[in-house]
Design brief:
heterodimer; A: mainly beta; Ubiquitin-like (UB roll); two-stranded antiparallel ribbon; 7 strands; B: alpha+beta; 8-stranded mixed β-sheet; 9 helices; 17 strands
């Protein structure tokens, strides 16, 4: 659905989504990289389990919540990608200790 | 407005609502006169425990009254669900009070002994458990937990949804709810009470004062007394997390929707508009020593509330001798005691007389003499 611009020459950053490698670009937010990956990255909300995708992309709506390097409920739109980053699509509530 | 009701309830919080709902259930015509949405309201600022352990030290009748509520709560929850479709998520899964040092353990053990030794107290089990026994039931406790007391009668509920369910039930029972109509004066004339509100007078055959700490001011208007001694409490609320806490604690509970509530301070200062962060810090520190995993959770809000609290910590239920048909009801534990208010107190008000065998001990006449009570301890 999303397609990267042909003029985007930023260096590639390799990260992992539920164990699978994806190619992001330096300067991407986690939420942007996930949307650009083409994978099914829908999370499930904490109470009803409804499917959600990143929405506002500016830190307001909290619909991009995701587990980053073992820490749950992070706002993917506010975290820049880094090489080797481990992302888990969060299904439901954050786990205690995560 | 000029209407006649069987009963007018002054106060539409959890306690007044429970009694009003109970009277509506019995087919009475009921008016509820309430403040507005911005009222200081313990019904919206509470910890939502249905709590038995350690209630009633110094007044055995309060222990019995609380055990009765614990035993009836599931019936109330079932009736509310059937009537309104709202699940108030009542759980009677047993509750803990955890201790963090040998001294705290010893202190709690002494309290448990004193409760068991109290003559006339209802018979219920509340026992001290060692840290390893606690760990079998609460696997995530931290190394600093020295043990705790456990009572199988304890539990918790979604108190905000309970409040909503009573009000939803009003409509079906034909209970009239009047917000923004605090009562400023009450007179009795020709066997009928007249209650003055900013929007006019309400007439009713009986009245129940259920206005929380404001009962202190209202009660003398009808020959009653309700000495109150409110305290303030703060609560810290975390983001939602997967269920990790199978039993509620006196100071930590996980709601049905996953948030963790950490409480609850007891302060004399009564301004609920300002948070005192050192108090939150102390509560959060104790919570994460009990459950180290909590340290990673984000706090999403924190608030302060004012407890409704009779002067000696025990409930007040009384009826006026000078103004027959006038009742007063106030207590700290409006959540725990909700079924007693909905079923028992409503039945007594409908019949026109409190039942001494059930609530005789709670008359405010106890304040007239030696007022050596103890405060409510959870």
């Amino acid at each position: 659905m999303f397609k990267r611009s042909d003029q985007d020459n930023r260096p590639a950053v390799k990260m992992f989504v539920d164990g699978a490698a994806i190619a992001a670009r330096e300067g991407d937010s986690v939420a942007a990289a996930l949307l650009a990956s083409g994978r099914d990255i829908r999370r499930a909300t904490a109470v009803s389990g409804a499917p959600r995708l990143p929405y506002c992309m500016m830190g307001v709506c909290f619909d991009c919540l995701v587990t980053i390097d073992g820490v749950g409920n992070r706002q993917g739109c506010l975290v820049p990608v880094t090489e080797g980053m481990q992302i888990e699509i969060q299904k439901g509530k954050r786990e205690i200790g995560k | 407005m000029h209407r006649d009701y069987d009963v007018a309830i002054v106060g539409g919080g959890l306690l007044g609502s429970a009694i009003a709902w109970g009277l509506g259930r019995l087919g009475k015509t009921v008016a509820v006169l309430d403040e507005g949405d911005i009222a200081k309201r313990a019904s919206r600022a509470n910890f939502a425990l249905v709590w038995v352990q350690s209630k009633g030290l110094g007044m055995p009748a309060y222990t019995g009254w609380t055990v009765r509520a614990s035993e009836t709560w599931s019936r109330l929850a079932a009736e509310l669900k059937e009537q309104t479709g709202l699940d108030v998520c009542h759980q009677r899964n047993g509750g803990f009070h955890l201790t963090l040092s040998d001294a705290e353990f010893e202190q709690r053990a002494q309290l448990v002994t004193r409760m068991h030794n109290q003559v006339g107290a209802a018979d219920y089990s509340m026992e001290m458990l060692s840290a390893s026994e606690v760990r079998k039931m609460l696997p995530l406790i931290g190394p600093e937990v020295s043990g705790g007391s456990f009572c199988p009668l304890d539990g918790h509920v979604n108190s905000l949804r309970t409040f909503r369910a009573f009000h939803t039930g009003f409509r079906q029972f034909g209970v009239d709810y009047f917000p923004e109509q605090p009562v400023s004066a009450i007179t009795r004339d020709g066997g009928e009470f007249r209650l003055s509100t900013p929007k006019g007078e309400i007439h009713a055959g009986k009245i129940v004062l259920a206005a929380g700490n404001a009962n202190q001011t209202l009660a003398p208007m009808v020959g009653l007394s309700a000495p109150m001694g409110p305290t303030r409490g703060q609560i810290v609320v975390t983001e939602r997390t997967m269920p990790f806490l199978p039993h509620p604690l006196t100071t930590i509970r996980q709601t049905d929707e996953g948030t963790v509530m950490i409480g609850d301070s007891k302060e004399d200062q009564l301004d609920d508009r300002v948070l005192r962060h050192p108090i939150n810090a102390a509560m959060a520190d104790r919570a994460q020593r009990m459950f180290p995993h909590l340290a990673r959770l984000n706090v999403v809000r924190s608030w302060a509330g004012i407890r409704v609290m009779p002067q000696d910590g025990f409930p007040i239920y009384d009826q006026s001798e000078t103004h027959p048909g006038a009742f007063v009801a106030c207590c700290h534990s409006g959540v725990t005691l909700a079924p007693n208010h909905a079923f028992d107190i409503a039945r007594m008000v409908a019949a026109g007389a409190l039942e001494p065998e059930l609530v005789g001990a709670f008359s405010a006449s106890r304040f007239a003499g030696d007022s050596a009570g103890t405060t409510d301890i959870r």
